[in-house]
């Protein structure tokens, strides 16, 4: 069973009934409309105020404003759905923030020599401008909901639960913004007038302080994941895991506040000690479940939700599996573009016997073998042992997709934002920084490794377990490699390299690797993509769309 969360209601996504689809679509559209209504009214008011005063003697009784809208539980649900909605935008976690805006040593984009997928970034880049816009729309919608939630005629517990969700999402949108753009304007209330002054950039330390403040408040307001029964909605352990991620980031680049390692350790430990989560015994099953519309709330703390094929009333399909998936030109088998390809560096980091390698990096593709009707026939064809750069990212395999009919572009596959293995590795990293490579740190990383080797996670294994007695620096290097193996293609690798302070150096190494070892038929695109990562690339440029309207904001260095 898969639940539609982006419409803020619990619906059996496998039922396929028209009424369920209509409910979801109606809720989604209403959610978007409710949040945009205030902006529309403000703009109209600004235009008409000076020229139409004589028509303002009467007060409309049928218009929707923030003061009249946020009154019922349904209103709050729809407004909250609108806040969640920006997560699924193609310029955020639809594809950009785990793909073409997140170049790292885990992938290159085949054949992309020019355009937005070639890593050709500048302040005028449309996709970058839209990413900034989508994240700030998420912030504005969260602010509006937080401004008006207390006026709703619902129970305090319902208000608090909605408030906690909105606080988390506001914090997450700001975390994503500061992680990618550095110091950015901080706004904590919704727009009340189109003439409000533009805001200057807020120092990075202040931004992180607000992010932590929001997350800590959210922790006390949201419910346990067992209350929801699915992970498209933010639970208490998801908040705690995100706090661990934020604190680890604060301990590294750009703040280098090493005292935050202790906080990261404490919040990761909270998740572990909650006993609400556990590793799925099978690494591949995590992603098969995503393709088959099944929730695994033990392994996955939080997912961005998608539903349907965008061919009917419901238009909530995503690009997971088609934009980043195992190459296939046949829709019925599970179409995927030939974009996201593995690197030799990722392939070689897996040790002998590690089952994750051939799931993360697909050892086969669906090769064209003729035509039948309007479809390209395909045959499952293995890559040779030397064909590494030719292989696709393999985690999101549409051949397991159960929703029918399939669409070329749109899939129901959710995107994993927080997994329990990530929490264990964050704990191991923070514990090592605070106390050295203790037994607790070894236990956490070894559980992840044992699962990777197909072993029981709670039984010591001489093949899978990390070498005992490592020095602190060597244990940290082992964690870095383990995160690379475990979490590739989940939108976290670039972030990790940035907070560790070695993103630019790593990508310059990749440039040398592509120039030296890559097949000449594939290398031009990869070389171009890696060569565009220089010292200025630790931050994106502030988009021109913001520079043009905000006289109080400056451009990032190098752009």
Protein traits:
6% strand; two-stranded antiparallel ribbon; 559 residues; 21 helices; 6 strands; mainly alpha
Compile the SSE list and pairings.
Blueprint: H1 18-48, H2 66-69, H3 73-85, H4 90-94, E1 107-109, H5 126-148, H6 156-181, H7 204-219, H8 225-228, H9 236-251, H10 260-273, H11 283-291, E2 300-304, H12 331-334, E3 340-342, H13 344-349, H14 357-360, E4 364-372, E5 375-382, E6 415-419, H15 420-435, H16 439-452, H17 472-487, H18 493-499, H19 503-517, H20 523-531, H21 544-547
Antiparallel strand pairs: 1-3, 2-6, 4-5
Can I get a quick summary?
46% of the residues lie in helices and 6% in strands. It is mainly alpha-helical and 559 residues long.
How would you describe this structure to a colleague?
By secondary structure, the chain is mainly α. It contains 21 helices and six strands. It has helices at residues 18-48, 66-69, 73-85, 90-94, 126-148, 156-181, 204-219, 225-228, 236-251, 260-273, 283-291, 331-334, 344-349, 357-360, 420-435, 439-452, 472-487, 493-499, 503-517, 523-531, 544-547; strands spanning 107-109, 300-304, 340-342, 364-372, 375-382, 415-419. The strands form three sheets. Strands 1-3 form a two-stranded antiparallel ribbon. Strands 2-6 form a two-stranded antiparallel ribbon. A two-stranded antiparallel ribbon has the order 4-5. The longest helix has 31 residues, at 18-48. Mean pLDDT is 90; it is low at 6-57.
Report the total helices: 21
The share of residues in extended strands comes to 5-15%
The largest β sheet comes out as: 2 strands, antiparallel
- Order of strands, main sheet, comes to 1-3
Distance between the termini: 47 Å
List the helices and strands in order.
Answer: HHHHEHHHHHHHEHEHHEEEHHHHHHH
Q: Pick out the low-confidence regions.
A: 6-57
Percent of residues in helices: 40-55%
Radius of gyration: 24 Å
Number of strand elements = 6
| Class computed from helices, strands and strand pairing | mainly alpha
> What's the shape?
globular
Overall mean pLDDT stands at: 90
């Amino acid at each position: 069973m898969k639940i539609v969360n982006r419409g803020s209601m619990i619906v059996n996504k496998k039922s396929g009934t028209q009424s369920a689809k209509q409910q979801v679509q109606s809720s989604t559209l209403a959610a978007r409309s409710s949040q945009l209504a205030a902006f529309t009214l403000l703009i109209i008011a600004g235009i008409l105020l000076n020229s139409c005063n004589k028509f303002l003697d009467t007060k409309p009784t049928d218009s929707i404003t923030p003061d009249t809208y946020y009154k019922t539980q349904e209103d709050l649900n729809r407004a909250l759905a609108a806040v969640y909605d920006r997560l699924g935008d193609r310029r955020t976690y639809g594809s950009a923030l785990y793909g073409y805006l997140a170049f790292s040593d885990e992938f290159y984009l085949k054949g992309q020599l020019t355009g937005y997928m070639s890593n050709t970034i500048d302040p005028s880049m449309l996709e970058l401008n839209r990413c900034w816009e989508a994240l700030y729309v998420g912030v504005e919608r969260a602010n509006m909901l937080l401004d008006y939630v207390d006026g709703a005629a619902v129970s305090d517990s319902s208000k608090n639960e909605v408030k906690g969700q909105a606080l988390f999402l506001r914090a997450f949108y700001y975390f994503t913004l500061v992680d990618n753009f550095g110091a950015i304007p901080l706004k904590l209330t919704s727009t009340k007038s189109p003439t409000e002054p533009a805001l200057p950039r807020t120092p990075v330390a202040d931004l992180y302080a607000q992010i932590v403040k929001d997350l800590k408040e959210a922790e006390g307001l949201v419910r346990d994941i067992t209350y929801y029964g699915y992970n498209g909605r933010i639970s208490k352990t998801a908040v705690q895991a995100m706090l661990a991620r934020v604190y680890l980031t604060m301990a590294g680049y750009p703040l280098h506040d090493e005292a935050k390692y202790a906080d990261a350790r404490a919040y990761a430990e909270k998740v572990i000690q909650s006993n609400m989560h556990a590793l799925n015994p099978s690494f591949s099953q995590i992603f098969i479940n995503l393709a088959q519309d099944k929730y695994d709330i033990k392994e996955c703390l939080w997912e961005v939700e998608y539903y349907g094929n965008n061919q009917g009333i419901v238009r909530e399909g995503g690009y997971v599996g088609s934009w980043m998936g195992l190459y296939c030109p046949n829709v019925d088998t599970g179409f995927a573009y030939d974009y996201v390809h593995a690197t030799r560096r990722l392939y070689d980091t897996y040790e002998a016997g590690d089952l994750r390698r051939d799931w993360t990096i697909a050892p086969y593709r669906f090769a064209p073998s003729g035509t039948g009707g309007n479809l390209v026939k395909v045959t499952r064809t293995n890559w040779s042992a030397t064909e590494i750069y030719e292989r696709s990212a393999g985690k999101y395999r549409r051949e397991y997709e159960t929703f029918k009919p399939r669409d070329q572009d749109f899939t129901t596959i959710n995107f994993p934002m927080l997994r329990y293995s990530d929490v264990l590795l964050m704990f191991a990293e923070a514990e090592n920084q605070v106390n050295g490579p203790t037994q607790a740190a070894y236990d956490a990383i070894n559980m992840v490794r044992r699962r990777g080797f197909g072993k029981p996670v709670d039984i010591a294994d001489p093949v899978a377990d990390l070498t005992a007695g490592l020095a602190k620096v060597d244990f940290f290097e082992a964690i870095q490699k383990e995160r690379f193996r475990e979490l590739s293609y989940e939108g976290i690798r670039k972030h990790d390299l940035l907070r560790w302070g070695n993103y630019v150096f790593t990508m310059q190494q990749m440039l040398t690797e592509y120039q030296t070892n890559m097949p000449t038929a594939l290398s031009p695109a990869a070389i171009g993509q890696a060569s565009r990562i220089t010292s200025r690339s630790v931050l994106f440029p502030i988009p021109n769309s913001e520079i043009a309207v905000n006289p109080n904001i400056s451009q990032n260095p190098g752009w």
